[in-house]
Specification:
The complex is a heterodimer of chains A (429) and B (288).
Chain A (H helix, E strand, L loop, with lengths): L11 H7 L4 H10 L2 E3 L8 H22 L7 H10 L4 H28 L8 H23 L4 H15 L5 H9 L6 H30 L17 E3 H26 L29 H9 L9 H14 L4 H4 L13 H20 L13 H26 L9 H6 L11
Antiparallel strand pairs in A: 1-2
Helix pairs in contact in A: 3-5, 3-9, 3-10, 4-5, 5-6, 5-10, 6-7, 6-9, 7-8, 11-12, 11-14, 11-15, 14-15
Chain B lengths: L1 H27 L23 H13 L24 E2 L15 E2 L7 H8 L2 E4 L8 E4 L13 H7 L11 H4 L3 H10 L15 E2 L7 E2 L20 H16 L3 H30 L5
Antiparallel strand pairs in B: 1-2, 3-4, 5-6
Helix pairs in contact in B: 2-7, 6-7
Classes of the chains: A mainly alpha (429), B mainly alpha (288).
């Protein structure tokens, strides 16, 4: 779909550069004249929002790194120094900490968009897989970053997560010691987590470039799921989508700013304002909100499965919940991309979304507490939800492809957009 | 069908949101017997500020009551005279009452020049050194010094407090779920233990403390301080004042943050409106 280049150098220097390094041509063809389906809705603006948040995280992160001290005796105090004494440190630190949450919020919306509109289906499987790689890297980066302020939740969160790796058979103990750099979470753990937390965002940026490359070969999907057929189906990316994405980015930034300035601690945990203490375990160790659904799946496996202990089973289920996304393009057997035209699948998708949110709710609560005063315990609730989570990918989507009768799809994007309107209207390009 | 589906999706989202909101306060209770009592603070909300006289009273309560056991390790003397701190401005001691109007308060941009801050600092002896002979020496505090800790180390603090460690107070409002409401409730939460509860020796019953038994003796007794500004030192008043001071200590840039936030939101809002019209204008050229 990327087609022949439409870039025409206007000035001498552009012509000179274009024959040596055609970078202006690449930018023009990728972000100015790139043919984009004319029917993209606001769910498609989250790609741009994510790019902005990656930049915010890297810029604020580099500034924080100039003031942070990665040493167990000074890390906690150095973050306080940033918040109190570094000029605008309170702003940079709040943007970085809340930015992580908003980065995850945007990525979850972006992923659910992909799930609903079948963005993972041929010819976009590699694009989807690269997205899952970015998501995994984000989870690793977020976890490593949460350890750095060296509060109670930082320390005990690091303890819980690194111990997960210790549950793996044979290699587990070795991996855990290698992660710790010793025999417990300590200074060596903090310094290596800091180095990796600095490194991974640049790896993410690299994979994002691949992700955009993989996007620009088949081109964007669209809400109808019908492939682009003619030029009438598309509009140039600029100005149509730069202005639409720009509007969405600024609206999203307003919500972000409300948290940064007025509720800087709303998404964090009070215990992380207590310096890490290996001798005092917090009463409830909970991860950041964006890991809660997976935390619930981890704790839902409370029984041994044959030779697999409950602990190992939980770890496998948790990693499996993400790993399953890699093979999703081949699990969904329906040729119809958009769930707009899948009357049955869309209901299962809606339930799936509610299940994911409820898993997050279970992750935030004590497993033995009752759900809203009912006799149902959170752990049992989480088990039912976990079952649905896996059934959605392993049973529902594969079977529906054969049993469901899709609704009639529009002949083209242009037909879907114009509908009964006069087909004589032409884009004024 | 499409609208029905959309409505149901919105309804499901709203229900989940409501469930989270209702579950959150319950989960936020610090595990004590009672959820903290909600209190109206001057610093709450987007336009909240610290009232300077209240911070001064709160500082007095901290210094005269809390400071004998609790450190304030992230605070330096200079912080008292910075930004919205308690002594950046104070009433002019040379102003005469017979002037018939309120004299302008004295304000200092640089806490090093601030006589009140310097006076507070110089009342403490700070260990410094080594000097040219290699010896440590004592000198009066200066605004740049950290607030001195009442104990040399945690062990000494525990030994002096029946094994309990009085926590540092410079982050206490942020480090407890329930925040300022919780700290205030705790300070006022000393009551007769309920029938049948055996309070261990050396502990006190407090209905807001996790487990209900706390090692800190009721700290705020009626009239334990005499406020310089003549405010009556009731237990409630002292609790509100000292918690306001501690809220400032845990977040000294709070007022700046609120002010900057308002400007940023106005800027983003105007930007969003302009982009909305640009979007409408650009897209009016095509059917969509």
């Amino acid at each position: 779909m990327s087609g022949p280049s439409t870039y025409e150098p206007q000035t001498g220097i552009e012509r000179w550069l274009d024959s040596r390094l055609p970078i202006a041509r690449l930018m023009w063809d990728s972000f100015v004249d790139f043919p984009t389906p004319r029917n993209l809705n606001y769910w498609w603006t989250f790609g741009g929002i994510l790019a902005i948040f990656l930049m915010i995280q890297i810029i604020t992160g580099v500034v924080l790194a100039m003031h942070y001290t990665a040493d167990v005796s000074m890390a906690f105090d150095s973050v306080q120094r940033i918040r109190r004494d570094v000029p605008f440190g309170w702003l940079i630190q709040s943007m970085h900490a809340n930015g992580a949450s908003f980065f995850f919020l945007a990525v979850y919306i972006h992923m659910f968009r992909g799930l609903y509109y079948g963005s993972y289906k041929a010819p976009r499987e590699v694009l989807w897989i690269l997205g899952v790689v970015i998501y995994l890297l984000m989870m690793a980066t977020g976890f490593l970053g949460y350890v750095l302020p060296w509060g109670q939740m930082s320390y005990w969160g690091a303890m819980v997560i690194t111990n997960l790796f210790g549950a793996l058979p044979v290699v587990g103990e070795g991996i855990r010691e290698w992660l710790w750099g010793g025999f417990s979470v300590g200074n060596a753990t903090l310094t290596r987590f800091y180095a990796l937390h600095f490194l991974l965002p640049f790896v993410i940026a690299g994979v994002v470039i691949l992700h955009i490359w993989a996007l620009h070969v088949p081109g964007n999907g669209n809400p109808t799921g019908v492939s682009v057929k003619t030029k009438k189906d598309t509009l140039p990316f600029h100005p149509y989508y730069t202005v639409k994405d720009g509007f969405a980015i600024v609206v999203f930034l307003m919500i972000f700013a409300a948290f940064v300035f007025y509720m800087p601690d709303a998404l964090g945990h009070a215990d992380n304002y207590i310096e890490a203490n290996p001798l005092v375990t917090p009463s409830h160790i909970v991860p950041e909100w964006y890991y809660l659904p997976f935390y619930a799946i981890l704790r839902a496996i409370t029984f041994d499965i044959g030779p697999i202990s409950a602990q190992l089973g939980g770890v496998l289920a948790m990693f499996g919940a993400i790993a399953i996304l890699f093979v999703l393009p081949w699990l969904d057997t329906s040729p119809v991309r958009s769930m707009r035209y899948r009357p049955v699948a869309r209901w299962f998708f809606l339930i799936f979304m509610v299940v994911c949110l409820c898993l997050g709710w279970c992750g935030a609560n004590n497993p033995d507490d009752p759900v809203l005063g009912t006799p149902l315990k959170f752990v049992t609730f989480a088990q039912i939800l976990t079952l649905y989570y896996f059934a959605y990918f392993l049973v529902i989507l594969p079977v529906l492809g054969f049993t469901e009768r899709p609704k009639e799809r529009p002949a083209s994007i242009e037909a879907a957009v114009l509908g009964n309107k006069s087909a004589t209207a032409q884009p004024a390009e | 069908m499409n609208t029905l589906f959309r409505n149901l999706a919105v309804l499901a989202g709203a229900l989940i949101g409501a469930a989270f909101l209702t579950a959150a306060p319950a989960a936020a209770a610090p595990g004590g017997e009672h959820a903290p009592e909600d209190h109206a603070w001057t610093f709450e909300g987007p336009f909240g500020t610290f009232e300077r006289t209240q911070l001064q009273r709160g500082f007095q309560v901290y210094q005269e009551v809390c400071a004998s056991c609790h450190a304030l390790e992230h605070i330096s003397f200079r912080n008292l005279g910075e930004g919205s701190g308690p002594f950046t401005c104070f009433p002019d001691p040379d102003a005469h009452a017979e002037d018939g109007h309120h004299a302008e308060p004295l304000c200092y941009e640089n806490p090093n020049d601030n006589p009140v801050v310097r006076q507070i600092a110089s009342a403490y002896m700070i260990t410094d050194g080594p000097d040219d002979a290699g010896d440590m020496f004592e000198r009066p505090g200066v605004p740049a010094d950290r607030w001195p800790s009442p104990f040399a180390n945690e062990q000494q603090a525990r030994a002096s407090n029946g094994g309990a460690y009085p926590p540092d107070l410079s982050l206490i409002v942020k480090a407890r779920s329930g925040g300022a409401d919780y700290v205030r409730s705790l300070l006022l939460g000393y009551h007769e233990a309920p029938e049948g509860l055996d309070v261990r020796p050396g502990l006190y019953y407090n209905e807001y403390f996790p487990g209900g038994q706390i090692a800190m003796a009721p700290p705020l007794l009626e009239g334990i301080v005499t406020y310089a500004d003549g405010t009556e030192a009731t237990t409630e008043q002292m609790a509100e004042d000292v918690v306001t001071f501690l809220a400032w200590a845990s977040d000294p840039h709070r007022v700046d943050r609120n002010r900057t936030g308002l400007m940023v939101l106005i800027y983003l809002f105007v930007f969003a409106v302009l982009l909305w019209f640009a979007y409408k204008q650009v897209w009016s050229r095509v059917e969509h």
